Structures are given as structure tokens and as C-alpha cells.
Amino acid sequence: MLNPHYITGFVDGEGCFSVSIGQKRFRVPEVRLYFEIELREDDEPILKEIQKVLGCGAIHYLKYERYQKWRPHVKLKVGSFKDIKEKIIPFFKKYPPQAKKKKQFDLFCQVAEMIKSNEHKTLEGIQKITELREVFRKT
């Protein structure tokens, strides 16, 4: 079993807490949260270990054919709001990022709270999330 502090350090360097605002469904755009780690395919074993500790996520295989010199990659991706709310956020609150991902994680948690309270279903909520996401992109 990996040390949770190792995982946090790994995520500080290689992970991503992201907010996606997609196409409009009904009257407001769809808001989704994602937690991801992407590495070269030969680092897949460490992603599988992280996946075990977190208890969620799927591993995807990526080929970058348009970049001839790039090796295939693997990505651990968590997109289920339930898993983000019940596993990802509690894990990283207990073992918080220390580097630049700390601010990203804090913004990620703010948007998660807005989704939990259904603010993401209003135009005002979407505007606030859009503004937070702009701060997010600058971190």
C-alpha cells in the first residue's frame, strides 16, 4: 500500500483537479469535476496502486499518434461526482496538497460545494463557477 503522503506529493507534480463546463443541457451548461493523473504507459503500475488507495477511478490508455516521438500514455480519471465527493475530496482534505495544486484543490472543493447545493443548475451559479474556473486556469 502506498503512503498517502506520497500520493499527495505525486499529485502535486502530476495530477489535475479540473472543472469542465460543457454544452447546454436544457437551459444551463453542464458542470463536471474531474480528477486526473496522466503518465507514460510504462508508469501504469503506479497509477494502479494510486487507484487502489483512492478506491475509485478508471485507467484509460491514450495513444498520441500525431506526435511521432511520444510514447503511449495512461490516465487515471475520476469523473463520478459521488466518488469525488466521497473519496477524492476527503482524501485530499486529510492529506492536502502542499504545492501549486493546493489552490486548485481549494477551488475544486468550492465548485463541488456549489454542485452539492445545486447552484450549478442556475445561470448565476454557472457565472460564479465560470469565474472560479478562470482563477483555476491561472493557478
Explain this structure.
The chain is of the alpha+beta class and about 140 residues long. It has a single domain (about 5-135), classed as Homing endonucleases (Endonuclease I-creI), CATH 3.10.28. The chain is about 50% helix and about 25% strand. It contains five helices and four strands, in the order H-E-E-H-E-E-H-H-H. Strands 1-2-4-3 form a four-stranded antiparallel β-sheet. Strand 1 (about 15-25) and strand 2 (about 30-40) form a beta hairpin.
Average pLDDT works out at 91
Number of domains: 1
N- and C-termini, Cα separation: 31 Å
Structural class: alpha+beta
Unreliable stretches (pLDDT < 50, length at least 5) are: none
User: What is the CATH level 1 assignment?
Assistant: Alpha Beta
Helical content, roughly?
Answer: 40-55%
Number of helices: 5
What composes the largest sheet?
4 strands, antiparallel
Rg over C-alpha atoms, rounded to the nearest angstrom: 16 Å
The CATH superfamily bears the name: Homing endonucleases
Estimated share of beta-strand residues: 25-35%
Please identify, by name, the CATH architecture. Roll
> Which geometry do the CA atoms define?
globular
- The assembly state of the depicted protein chains is single chain
Number of strands: 4
Spatial sequence of strands, sheet with the most strands = 1-2-4-3
CATH fold type: Endonuclease I-creI
Q: What are the secondary-structure elements, in order, as H or E?
A: HEEHEEHHH
Note the topology:
Layout: H1 4-14, E1 15-25, E2 28-40, H2 44-54, E3 58-62, E4 73-78, H3 81-94, H4 101-116, H5 123-137
Antiparallel strand pairs: 1-2, 2-4, 3-4
